Amino acid sequence: MAVIRPFKALRPTKDLAEKVAALPYDVMNSDEAREMTKNNPYSFLHVDKAEIDLEKGIDLYDKKVYEKARENLYKMADEGIFIEDETPRLYIYRQIMNGRMQTGVVACTSIDDYMNNIIKKHEHTRADKEQDRINHVDYCDANTGPIFLTYKAVDEIENIVSKWTQKEPVYNFISEDGISHIVWIVECSKDIEKLCELFKNVNYLYIADGHHRAASAVKVGQLRRKQNPNYTGEEEFNFFLSVIFPDKDLYIMDYNRVVKDLNGLSHEEYMLKVSEKFEISLYEGKGPYKPSERHTYGMYLNGKWYKLSAKEGTYNPEDPVDRLDVSILQNNLLSSILGIEDPRTDKRIDFVGGIRGLEELQKRVDEGMSVAFSMYPTTIKDLMDIADAGEVMPPKSTWFEPKLRSGLFIHKLK
């Protein structure tokens, strides 16, 4: 039984929404954020990456960064860039990318559901990244970045959402990357109540993207509970900002790998070792090789593309983690042949999101890396199966597009 509830969003005025809306804080570095905002004082990156308004080189975890985030957020509110809805509402957020549409309900979800595993996870989090967002949420006294959740689609929920998307949206703009962003406000109390009731029949929500933001929001909520021992459970700090999409709407892109060297092996030695676990064939088509089915890979080496197919017996088809393509490649090649034991920390491997195209892999190898691998995308079913089994995915298993924009909805904790 998943709990959702309406909230009074702090959100940009209609005429400034396009300028405020920003990519998530963790998809660019500070220099890139400075460049992106140099002609845009309204960008939400002034809140989510507030170091851009401080001296270059400042420690990203310095107290001054979080103080600046808070200052910028409430200054924007004071200046009328943001308005706050007078009554709690739900919202609908639609994104359109290359003609493909995903439409989610914007609501607050429960920190208790997270702790009780009604909201399921599939990734480990890092303590330093968690602490950064804990500080950010705590100083801002708000959830500034939404958590990207999914659920197994329910027709009745879809019907209500569809009804509201026939109405006039409050926001409708195309961001600089060509993605449409459309938002509706669900103002009818009966429909709000009905949606909340329908989600009570949803057994589980799944984190698609935003594990660090979710964990941090929950820990701030737990901290506030300690500070307020007589809390009732209804206070805003017991809930966090989410956008909840039906599974059928979502699209996971390939998340590809490129490796610096062959671990001291000659080309011939390397190919011989790879052939023990994979069938290898030279790809003679045009351009890079893009896998079209599970357990197949493209490999770019010495100016040529090859197709790899995992041999039977090299993975356990009954194990939801072991049968993942990223696991098969990691266990049977990256670790055992190339010596990359921990892809989280090994500097010899890099990861390239599918949004950048397979030509980027080819370019990286042609410019000095040794070998690249194109992947078949992980599926939403894979993600749910692993979360249901209480397991975690290997690092860099999923790349969701489009990314949710920050700044369109802010949830204040009091």
Structure described in brief:
The chain is an alpha+beta fold and 414 residues long. 31% of the residues lie in helices and 24% in strands.
Give an account of the 3D structure.
Helix content is 31%, strand content 24%. The chain has helices spanning 17-20, 30-37, 45-48, 63-78, 111-115, 127-140, 155-164, 189-199, 211-227, 267-277, 325-334, 359-366, 380-388, and strands spanning 4-5, 10-12, 82-84, 90-97, 100-110, 119-120, 142-143, 147-151, 171-174, 180-186, 205-209, 239-246, 252-253, 255-259, 278-282, 296-301, 304-310, 349-353, 371-374, 399-400, 411-412. The strands form five sheets. Strands 1, 4, 5, 6, 8, 9, 10, 11 and 12 form a nine-stranded mixed β-sheet that branches. Helix 4 packs parallel to helix 6 (127-140) and helix 6 packs across helix 9 (211-227). The model has no long low-confidence stretch (mean pLDDT 96).
